[in-house]
Amino acid sequence: MIRRTFLAATTALAFAAPAFAGGHSMDIVDTAKEAGSFETLLAAATAAGLVDTLKGEGPLTVFAPTDAAFAALPEGTVEDLLKPENKDQLTAILTYHVVAGKVMSTDLSDDMMAKTVEGSEITIDLDNGVMVNDASVVTADIEASNGVIHVIDKVIMPGM
């Protein structure tokens, strides 16, 4: 029942995202650029030197926080993370949002643990909508040529 509810919710969300109408002929970075609500994520990926990885062959699964999710962080957090001296911390945070392989919503199960590229695990919870740690998935299964994007409403932090 949970899986059916999740599938219905993610199918409805996927159709509610016309900004991603480009389909999966574009890579993860270009798909995010076209959407227009991931400028902070893309700036952070550039600062961390991760753009080439996200444009690479993959496949990768990215739990992508929106600009609003980054804006909700404490004042000055994003600016501090974008400083060159904080590149390692920024890289750890961004790679915590990435899982190797293409993980579609149909591959998820309740209380599932997934190892991130950063090295820690994230928890998938299907009891109250679809949660990745304490972030809600607001749009799922946005396919790109080198993986999939699931849009989340919060920046998740390793070790928290």
TrEMBL record:
It comes from the Bacteria. This is Beta-Ig-H3/fasciclin. GO terms for cellular component: extracellular space. InterPro entries: Adhesion/Biosynth-related, FAS1_dom_sf, FAS1_domain. It comes from Mameliella alba.
